[in-house]
Structures are given as C-alpha cells and as structure tokens.
Amino acid sequence: MPSSGKVESQGWPKDVGIIALEVYFPSQYVDQTELEQFDGVSSGKYTVGLGQSKMGFCSDREDINSLCLTVVQRLVEKYNISYSDIGRLEVGTETIIDKSKSVKTVLMQLFEDSGNTNIEGIDTTNACYGGTAALFNALNWVESSSWDGRYAMVVAGDIAVYATGNARCTGGAGAVAMLVGPGAPLVLDRGVRGTHMQHVYDFYKPEMASEYPTVDGKLSIQCYLHALDKCYEVYSNRAQAEGIKAGHSLLDSADAFVFHSPYCRLVQKSLARLLLNDFLRDPSPDFEGKYAGLEGFKEVKLENTYFDRSVETSFLKASKEIYESKTKPGLLISNQVGNMYTPSVYGGLASFLSSRTLSDVAGKRVVLFSYGSGLAASMFSLSVSEDQSPGSPLEKLMSNMSKIPERLESRQKREPSVFADMMKLREDTHHLAPYSSVGSVEDLFPGTWFLTEVDNMHRRKYERKPLMSATDVNMADISQIKKTTVQQSQPVSVENSKNLIQATIRTQHRKL
Ligand SMILES: CC(C)(COP(=O)(O)OP(=O)(O)OC[C@H]1O[C@@H](n2cnc3c(N)ncnc32)[C@H](O)[C@@H]1OP(=O)(O)O)[C@@H](O)C(=O)NCCC(=O)NCCS
To answer: How many CA atoms lie within 13 A of 147 on its CB side?
Structure first.
C-alpha cells in the first residue's frame, strides 16, 4: 500500500509514476516476409519499407475484455498486489465491443473476492491515445485531493485489425497494465507535458458493426508528424524551463525516445524529425559538427517537409547514431508484434527497459510520444529511479522486463492463410449472438483469459487457461513445461481448430 507516501495538504506525494508494468501479446504471429509473398506485394515492402518483422494476432477466443483480464491478473499475480489496495482503475482502448458497458466493469469480476468495489475510473477512448489519457487521469488522481492513499491501475489494450489491403500488415494486438502511485521507479516528470489536439479524419471507426477502421493512410502519417512537431515544441520549451533540456537540443539531454509505433520505419523518421526541429530552432547550428552537410535545409518550413524525400533522407542519416542508441531498442515489441494501438507506446517503454541492464537504466530519462488519430497527442517524460538495491521497485520492474525477449520467442508462427482465415472468421462473427468461440485454447499462453461464448443477450462469458505452476506466472518459463503438462481447459488442437474455423466460416456464410 502506498499510503505512507501521502502528504496531507503539504504538497504532492513524492515520486509519482509507474511502479509496475506488465505486457501481454498474443501467443501466435504471422511472419511479415511470408505475408509479403501471400499478399503479392514486392519483397521488402513490409519488412524494409515499414520495418516490421512479425505481426501478432488473436483468434476468436480473445477480445478486448479477455486481453485486459489477462494483463491485469498477470500484473497482480507477479507483483503480489492485493485487489483491495487499488482505488482507481482506468482503461484506455479503441476496441469497442459495447457502446455502453465499459471494459472496466468487466474487470471488476477480478475484484469480487476481495470485496473491493470502491474503485473509481472507467474507459477512455480516442484511437491509440486512450492509454495515455488513462495514465494521465491516474497520475492526476494520485496528485489530487481525491486520492485516498491507494494505488491506481491503468490498462491499455487493443486488437488492431484492418480490412484486406495495404493497411492490413500494420495490425497487431496486445495489452499493458501499469500500477501507478508514489515511490515509483519510473517517475513522471512534472510540468513538462506537451499536448496537441485537433479535428481531423485520418483514421476513425464510423462503422459500428465492423472491427475495421476507415483509414486515410497518407493523411494519418502527415497528422502524426505534425502532432509530433507541435508536442515537441511545447515539451522542449517546458523542459528547458524545468532544467531538463540543456542547450538547443533535447536529443542530447534525454537518454531514450519512445514513440507510439504504427510501424517501425515511421518511428525512425520521427526521431529524425526531432533533429530537424532542433536544427531549425538552433540560432547558430554547428555546421562543422552534428549538422554538417545540412546547411541547405536551414530555410525549410516544417509544414512543407512531411513527405520531402531530400529532407527525410538527410536527417535520417544525420540522426542514425542517436536512433540506434536511443530509439531502436524501444522498437522490439513493435517490430515483433505490430501496432498494439493504445499499448503501443508503453510496449515501447517496456522494450527499451528490456534492452538495458539495471545499472544502465538507473537515473536515466525517457521521453515518450503518444499519438491517437482524430487526433490527440502528447509528449511527456519520466525519470528512472537511482535505487538499484536488491528488492527495490526498480530491480523488480527490470527483472520482469528482462523476460520480454524470451516471451516473444516462445510464440508460435502461423501461415498467412491461417491468419487470413482468422481475420475472416472475426469479420463474420463480430457481434454475432449467440456464438461459441472455436479457436484453439491449447495455443494460448497459460494464464490467458479467453471467450467461451456470447449468449443470445450478447452477454460474454470467459474462462482462464490455468497456469502450469501456481508460483510461476512467467510465460517464457511456463512455455518450457507446457508441452509435458495436461491441459485443464478444453483442449482444441491446431488441426482441429483450423477445421473448426473453416467450418464456422462456411456456416456463418450460410447464416448471414
Ligand atoms: C502506412 C500505410 C499508409 C502504407 O501503405 P502503402 O501506401 O501501400 O505503402 P507505400 O507504398 O507508401 O510503402 C510503404 C513504404 O515502403 C517502401 N517500399 C515499398 N516497397 C518496398 C520494397 N519492395 N522494399 C523496400 N521498401 C519498399 C515505400 O517506398 C514506402 O516508403 P516511404 O514511407 O519511406 O515512402 C498503410 O499501411 C496504412 O494505411 N496503415 C495504417 C495507418 C497507419 O499506420 N498510419 C500511420 C500513422 S498513425
């Protein structure tokens, strides 16, 4: 319980931020090289042009409720948190399966045994930004007169799926859960957030009966880059005022830059764009040093450069070293899972942490950029605690993060045709009631919640695939023993599942 950190009417509690972080991604993926061949696009378009290697996807066993149930329970179990110690629960998602009932209320099932129903917060939606809005709500609560001394928990989850066509390869799925309170190992910097919000139709979901968005891909890239410029300007000015930024370049002052990642190549371009911003604002750029060869760009206007190949190539080259050390490590999950929407930027944070040792990361500053189409965007930063002592919150957090690469490796690859069948099944059965899910339970990671049925009143029922060991909630470790342990939930083999899926698609076609 964090109540000891509460300072009644003497100021804010100390070191408010992220105490614990858990990431969940699906147990199956499609390989992007194989998807290029399957889709008949030129070799390298998805892997080099967009920078993606693998894309995680969910069967009809998982929906937004199950993703969030899974990640919350995993966080609680791993950190041995009492459900009674949570006073606020916020969910950020754009995967809407009910226009009234929030995901938060579904999560309340996990709290039933504790008897704790005194929990504020509901769902927040605006494309990929909902998780950040939820995090800000949680931080604001802890720093407000409403705070009752308990933890806040923030959940961000989404299933990112697109209709067949050029955007489908930029899908993904996943969820993160974050425990928020004082005494955190990741302390959110105060007074520096920079936000940009604007009305635009770049990506939106007007079709209530479909999971798929309506996308103006090129406009969405332009909006993302414009929002980045605007947020960076506010953040930089505030960071300078707070003493976070030294000199004219924030790129030199912070240790990592983590971005919302629709696809990795856009993030590399975004980091290059921060250098362009620094360069244009620098009254006396060093043309002998870091800006060598960029003299010709001194008069360009930011708003004319979104798709300027010459500016882009030059600044990508000039920022390559910074990208490799400060941004690329944060792209692991994005590269391997794809766009998770609301959790994307926090998956980036987890990826960055997973790439560092405890001593590497202690005392460092991470700048984050969150973007949600429509649009809402913010840049903010956090400072990593200096306390590396055994058993410290930072050590525990880093120990959990260090398992991420192994967990990614433990997933199973599926043929693009299996992925396409699954998208078709989801498409045909989305919002169908009554409906019984047919996807494989055997394939899910132990500890995963899954949908069993939707009854004729659209009420969804879930079960949890048992953990293999009561004490071990680490998926990578669990996956080692999975093959030798008897399944406790109805097992459905991959082959049977494939047959069932195809039969269900045929049946649904007859029904619809
Ligand atoms: C991102 C998106 C617009 C790309 O679709 P597209 O127009 O078919 O893709 P492009 O033809 O522009 O190709 C993508 C990139 O791969 C490059 N490319 C294409 N074929 C290639 C190949 N064989 N080898 C290497 N690179 C290749 C292109 O040159 C392009 O690079 P650029 O972005 O530097 O210009 C589309 O996937 C989409 O709409 N995604 C969803 C929305 C989204 O993610 N928006 C981002 C901001 S939120």
So the answer is: 29
Q: Tell me the pLDDT tens digit for each residue of 325-369.
A: 999 999 999 999 999 999 999 999 999 999 999 999 999 999 999
pTM of the full predicted structure?
0.92
Low-confidence ranges of the chain (pLDDT < 50): 4-8, 471-472, 475-495, 505-512
Whether the CB-CB separation of 37 and 422 falls below 8 Å is answered with no
Known active-site residue 260:
yes
Burial degree of 372 (CB within 10 A; 0-12, 13-18, 19+): buried
134 occurs within a structural domain: yes
128 is catalytic: yes
Which pLDDT score is estimated for 468? 78
Maximum distance among all Cα pairs of the chain, rounded to whole angstroms = 71
Q: Strands (DSSP E) along 5-60, which ranges?
A: 17-24, 28-31, 54-56
Taking the mean position of all CA atoms in its chain, how far away is CA 419? 21
Of all protein residues, the one whose alpha carbon is nearest to atom 17 of ligand 1 is: 49
Q: What is the CATH number of the domain that holds 248?
A: 3.40.47.10
308 lines ligand 1 (CB under 6 A): no
Could you tell me which residues come within 8 angstroms of residue 4 by beta carbon, excluding any fewer than 6 positions away? none
**For the chain, what is the domain count?**
1
As a whole number, the mean pLDDT across the chain is: 91
The CA angle 162-264-372, to the nearest 5 degrees, is: 55
